[in-house]
Here is the input.
Amino acid sequence: MRWRPSASSRRASSRDSSLRGSTHELASSYRSERYLSVQPGSLDAPREASRDGRRRYSTQETSLRRPNPSRSPRPVDTSSRYRYTPLDPRINRAIRVIRVHDELVHDKIACEIEQITTDSKYTALSYTWGSSKDASETIFLNGQRFMVRRNLLSFLDHARAFHAGKSLWIDAICINQEDIREKNRQVQMMSKIYSSTAEVFVWLGPRVDYAGHCLRRMQAYESMSDTEMALSSSKDSDFWKGFAAINSARYWDRVWVIQ
Here is the structure.
């Protein structure tokens, strides 16, 4: 996505270049907005006719097709905490990925974790961990208890609904954070992990109001001159609400993004 702001809008935010880099490969569809972490609700309001007479998009009008359901979760041991199996040192560029089940187990999200290499097909997640003070929530990983922070739990719940069975690389789960040696090796591989992925999901948070409308308008502005774009955007308050919401997300404060 190439976002060409007019002179007046260039001052709106210096972060639009980060958004541009994150969405370069995304198509102008409801699916691409889902990849940008727009959850149900943020695309639903308002639903009335817009100023140009066109109806607003809604989750009912442009629903994302669910993938084939993943296989049933394995039996769980609620008393057992998940313990990592070390990555095989004989395998070059070994990583772990998870697959989220579409079924809940004891009202909790269940995932499978396995080892693959960066030559395999997988999707990487870019998100913010949140504060260490955030409450930790329980999920099941290979049938055993595993703790995640609230922002990641909200993504996993989204993935359960729309990306069940997809191979996902998520650093907080796929790297043994208690194994310093492994953690250091995986951090050194970070560039390879992200450059080898089939796609990257950018998770801005559980709700980003008007983000879907904003991204659709950005796509439309690509074919406009600066003057046309300035005139159109100046009359579209929902666009600027979405633009401000996207750029004020905590995601952009991450050290990785700033660098």
Notes: Confidence is low (pLDDT under 50) at residues 1-67. Residues 150-162 form the longest helix (13 residues). The beta strands are 77-81, 94-105, 108-117, 123-126, 136-141, 144-149, 168-169, 199-202. The longest strand covers residues 94-105.
